[in-house]
């Protein structure tokens, strides 16, 4: 009896093995991509989309149940995804971080076979278009200087200005010398008065 149970378990596990197919898909940056799951039939328990991570760990993205085929369940994810009626996974505006292997697992009813499809998505690098800056002409300073007309003051005006400045300096010097002389004379008289009063 135990041998029969073991034989049935081994046989049922071989029947429920997931046959898998691998598809490759290339996409350009910022393109909308639809990942198909062609193995879905009408008789299933669930359809689940996963993204493979490092060390073959999988992260759930989206899951349909046979009880409510119209509204799938979204797993907690950093990436916003959508779904289509044919159980495709729609990823909008893909970037290189969306590259990787995605799996569509179809859970069969009792007595059926589970199925799995892998889709390898390769997204090209995003290239930002070069921004053209307008070129502003640099003025040619040598030719601009040649165009300037130098206006010279007449010699008479120069003589008058320099003469006036020179005369003002002489007058101020004489006034300062006279003031110093006056201060010295007053100081001298005070000293004489002090000595005379003693």
UniProtKB/TrEMBL annotation:
Task: Provide this UniProt record's keywords sorted from A to Z.
Answer: Membrane, Signal, Transmembrane, Transmembrane helix
SMART domains listed in its UniProt record? IG, IGc2, IGv
Write down the Gene3D superfamilies for this protein, in alphabetical order.
Answer: Immunoglobulins
PROSITE patterns registered for this protein in UniProt: IG_LIKE
- Per its UniProt record, what CDD domains does this chain match? Ig (cd00096)
Q: Which domain of life is it from?
A: Eukaryota
Q: Tell me where the transmembrane regions lie.
A: 155-180
PANTHER family recorded for this chain?
CD83 ANTIGEN, PTHR15193:SF2
Kindly provide the name given to this protein in its UniProt entry. Ig-like domain-containing protein
Q: Which organism is it from?
A: Pogonophryne albipinna
């Amino acid at each position: 009896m135990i041998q029969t149970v073991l034989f049935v378990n081994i046989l049922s596990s071989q029947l429920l093995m997931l046959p898998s197919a691998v598809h490759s898909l290339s996409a350009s940056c910022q393109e909308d991509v639809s990942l198909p799951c062609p193995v879905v039939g009408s008789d299933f328990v669930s359809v689940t989309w996963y993204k493979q991570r490092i060390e073959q760990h999988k992260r759930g993205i989206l899951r349909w149940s046979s009880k409510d085929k119209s509204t799938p369940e979204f797993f907690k994810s950093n990436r916003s995804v959508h779904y289509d009626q044919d159980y495709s996974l729609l990823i909008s505006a893909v970037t290189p971080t969306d590259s990787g292997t995605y799996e569509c697992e179809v859970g069969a009813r009792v007595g059926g076979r589970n199925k799995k499809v892998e889709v390898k998505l390769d997204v090209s690098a995003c290239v930002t278009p070069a921004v053209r800056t307008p070129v502003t002409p640099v003025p040619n300073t040598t030719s601009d200087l040649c165009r300037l007309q130098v206006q010279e003051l007449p010699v008479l005006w120069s003589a008058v200005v320099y003469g006036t400045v020179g005369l003002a300096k002489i007058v101020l010097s004489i006034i300062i010398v006279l003031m110093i002389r006056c201060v010295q004379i007053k100081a001298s008289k005070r000293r004489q008065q002090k000595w005379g009063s003693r």
